[in-house]
Amino acid sequence: MAKHSRRCRLFTVKETNRNAGSTGRGNNWAHGYSDDFGTESTLEVIRQTIEKQSSSYSQGTILFQSIAGGTGSGLGSRLTEDIRDEFPKRFLWNCAIAPFASGETALQHYNSLLSLAKLQQNSDLISVFSNDVVMNVLTKQHALYRGNKTDPKISLSELNNQIASSMAGVLLPTSPVTRTDTGDLNHLPMRGFNGWDLITQVAPMPSCKLVSISTSTNALEVDKRMGLLKGLIPASSWEDVTSDLFRNLPPIPLNMKKSHISSWLYARNAVGPEFWDRQADKMQSKVKQKLGPSIVPPPAQALELVASSSYAMNIKSTARSLTLVSNNSDAISNLSHLLQRSHAMYESGAYLHWYDRHFQQHHSASRPIKKPLKPQKKKTGGGWDNSIHDPTTARGGLSGISGTVFDCDDDNEPDPFPWPYTKRIGRKMWMESDWDVSQLFEEGFEVVETMLDSYNTFCTNL
Description:
This protein is an alpha/beta fold. The chain has helices at residues 5-9, 29-34, 39-52, 71-86, 108-122, 131-146, 156-171, 195-202, 222-229, 238-247, 272-276, 280-291, 330-347, 352-366, 423-433, 437-459; strands spanning 60-66, 91-98, 125-130, 177-179, 185-187, 210-215, 260-268, 303-308, 321-328, 372-373, 405-406. The strands form 3 sheets. The protein has a 7-stranded mixed beta sheet with strand order 1-2-3-6-9-7-8, with helices on both faces. Strands 4-5 form a two-stranded antiparallel sheet. A two-stranded antiparallel ribbon has the order 10-11. Helix 4 (71-86) links the parallel strand 1 (60-66) and strand 2 (91-98). Helix 13 packs antiparallel against helix 16. The longest helix has 23 residues, at 437-459.
C-alpha cells in the first residue's frame, strides 16, 4: 500500500460526498428496492455536487453497481429511478457488473433480470462487465506475463483494476486529432469526457443500449504502466497494442455470427507518422473485421475513431492504449441465458416468497393503520378541495390504487398521501397498496424479452 499511496491520494473521495452503510440487502432485489434507507441522503449529495458545478461541467451521472446481490441490484434500481426523476435532462449511464454464470447467489438470475428491466426503462446507456469475461481476460494475462497457466490466483483487486482500466480509457480527457480529406492533421485543445457524444453514437436506439467496453491495458503490468506514464519506458508498437485489445475482447459465442450496431474506438497517444501513415487505416480495418457487419449504412461510420495526441493530461507519458466501446450482438447470448435461467426458476416457483416477504414486512412496519372514511365532498365558497387526498384524482392518475381516503386529522401521524404528488411518492404508494410479486416478474420478463427481440432484429439479419 505504501508503494501506491501517492497515486491513490489523487482519487480520494471527500468525506462529505460519502454515504456508506453498515448493512446489506440480503442478496434480494425486493429488499434493496423497497427499503429506501439512504436514498434521500445519497440524492442530496448528488444534488449538492451538481449545484457546485457549472451547468456545462455537470453533464450527467455514472452509476456503478453489481446486479447479483440486493444492494447493487435493488437499491441501485431505486437510485436509478430517483436520479432520472430528479435530473431528467442529464444523461444517466449505468455500469453493471454481471455475476459469474457458475453462480454467486441463489437469487442472482432474478436480481439481474429485475435490475436490467429497471435500467432499461430509466438509463441512457448500460455498460455490462461480466465477471466471467473479466476473469477470462486476467487468466490470459497471468499465463502470458506471470507464467501461471494452470491455476492462476486472481484477486478481487485485479478484477476491479481491469474494469477501472477499461473505464479510464473512455473517461480520461482527450486531446483530439482529426484528419481532413486532404490528409492534414487538425489538433484540437484538450477536452473532458462528453457523455452525450458517446451515447448518441453507440446507443442511437432506446431499445438497444447494452454496450461492452474492452481495453488493451493489462491490469497485471503495474510497474510497466507506471514507467510508461512517467515516460521512462519506450512505447509499445501499435501492432502490440492492437493485439492486446483483441486478446481482451469477449469471446464470440458458439454458433453465432458477430455483428454490431455502432462502436467507438479510443486511441491514446496517437501521434506521428507511425500511427497516421501506417497504422490508423489498417487498425480500423482489423477492428471492423472483429466486430462484423453493422446496420449503419454508408457513408455514415459504424466505427468512430477518437484519436488523442496525449494519453490523458500527462504530455510526457509514452503509454499507448486502445479502448473499444461496442453495442453488438454479444447482448443476445447474455440476455438469452438470463431469460432461460430466470424462466426456469419462475415456472417452478422457486424463491418467489422471498421477494413477497420483504415487501410485506416493510409495508406493514411503515404504513400507518387508519380508519377509512367516505370520500369527502368539495367545499363551497372557495375553500380547499379535499379531493386532493384521493389518490385516484391526484396528478399522475394512479389507477391501480384504491380510492379510499384516510382520516389524517392527527398532526402526529404522517399523511399516507402527501401533496404535491411526485413520481417517487407514486412508486411508494404503489408498493404499499397493490404490490404483486407476479406482476413484478411478468413486467421484468416483458422488458428484457423486448430487449432481446430488438437485438435479434438488428443484429441477426445482417
